[in-house]
Each structure stands twice: as structure tokens, then as C-alpha cells.
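Allow me, if you will, to draw on your knowledge of protein folds for a short while. The matter concerns a single protein, recorded as an amino acid sequence and a row of C-alpha cells. Could you please explain, in whatever detail you think fit, how the C-alpha cells follow from the sequence? I remain grateful for any guidance, and I place the record below:

…
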Amino acid sequence: MELLSVCSHPCWFLLTLLLGLLLWARRRHTWDPRKCPTDLTGKTVIVTGANSGIGKCVALDLARRNARTILACRSRERGQAAVEEIQAATGNPAVLLRLVDTSSLASVRAFVRAVLREEKRLDVLVNNAGLTGLPFTITPEGLEKTFATNYLGPFLLTNLLLDLLKASAPARIVNVSSFRHSSGTADGRYLTGQERLSSSATYDSTKLMNVLFTAELARRLQGTGVIANALSPGVVSTSIMRHFGWAVRTLFILIRPFIKSAEQGAVSTIYCAVSEEVSGITGKYFNSDCGLALPSMAARDAGLARKLWEESERLTGLTDSPQH
């Protein structure tokens, strides 16, 4: 989302080019999934937003590790195409499509009912689905659509699957955030549209909420064998910019040769999902180079995390749990 501010700079092209070169240089020194020996035979994983971009690359890697891989997608057509592609690339027949729209709490609940009915275990949950650039929209459930998609839907999804994750421990929850979380603010009124933000500020704030959620979730899961971490994939060439105007999309196309591909952008997510290095680490934030990083001051506010959690419980209808 920094691309928006770059556009207004008189030397935006030069600055963008320099940024791209820096990102290109940094991405060469990251962790390599191909050198990670983790095998997931007998394990079950769920990846949301897995029909394209980072999510698809993550699902492909986990399927290559022999996991029973559930692609949680909004579109049946695109999701099924991704399933068939991943099955063909990996030779893993246990790649499945399950439909869910994280902007709809009803859809999330239906998805979870199906998972609990059909799956005996869940070892890795990757909350990857997200969007940006949408106009301000209130869903039929009274939620602001971007906040519901990026944060509140995943909050509900994760909580409803916690018992299955605990029963499968050791297990991992991976929440895809962004370095843009440092520009966000966390106010429960955003979730229902009582307070409006620009599309860029909305995205930033959902990503801050992802980090706050992760920290509070990890605190509540202490001693259960389930770890939860958040991460930034970096600046990645995916279709996430499709809802923006032509100027931003054009700029994004111009810098595409210098930024991460979806496969490269998936590395930090895969790292949190399968690497031995992350075993036992919880409640942390990882940068796009797979290194532990200090998130923003707001993201480290335990009181704010608890307040957001309580408001999210209220909006999703979750009852108090023994984890408190």
C-alpha cells in the first residue's frame, strides 16, 4: 500500500525503481522451502484463499509434503482448477476444495461444520485470504466487508477450529499480515462501519488486527501445544491490487520485475507453517525474510489486543471460553 504514496511523489518512478532493486537484492537471502525436510504425511492442513497467489503456492508446497491439503476458497470454479493443478504437480490425490467466504460469518460457520464432520485432525491452519481496494461496503450481517474478509472471518474460523487443532497438537496457526500493519489503527467501530477509513487505511488496519489477534490467541493457547504466529510476505506480485484504479495498477505492473513473485512471497508463510526453526515459538511476528521482527508499538499493546478480542467475540457471537 506504500505504492499509493509513491505515486504522488514527483520522482516516483526513480524511487519505485530503487525500492524494487532493494527488494530484489533482499529476496535472494531468504529461507529456502526446498531445503526443508519436513514431511506432512498423515497431517491435515487448511489454506484459505488458496486458488491463486500466495495461498496457492503455500497449498502446493504443503501438498508436496504429502499433507491432506484443503483449499478453502470462495470460487468453486477457480478453486477446483487450483485443486487439479496441485494434484497434477504433486501426485498427491488428497487435495480437496471446500468453499468459504470469510466476509460471511454464516459461510465460515458452514465451512467449519463440514470440516468437523469430515476431518479427524487439523495440524496447520493458514489464514491467508485477504483483499484490498474495495469501496466501503456493509455486508448483510452488518459488517464492513474488508474488515470481515481480512480479520473478523478468520477470527471466527480459527476459534471454531481450536478444539480440533488442540486435539491434533502439536499444531500451528499461521496468520498472513503485512508490514503495512505499522500504519494501521485498531478500533472496533471499523468492524461494523461506524467509522470509515480509506481503502488503504482499511487494509493497514486489518493487518494490524491480524497481529493483535495472533498475540492474544497465542497467550490463550499457552500449554495446549498449538502455536500461532503472524508474518509479512513482503511486496508481492499477485492479483490483490485488482480493485484499485488504473494508476496504481499500472505502477504495480511497472515494478513487477523487481518485486517478489507469488512463489517467493509464499516463503515466509511456509516457514511459519512447517520449519523446525519455528517449533515452540508462538505469538511472534516474522518479516518477509523469515526473521523474527518487532511489530509496531500498537501491535504490542496487550490491552488493545484483549479489547479487540472481546469486541470480536461479541460481533461473531462466540461465548467466553476456559482459555481466559
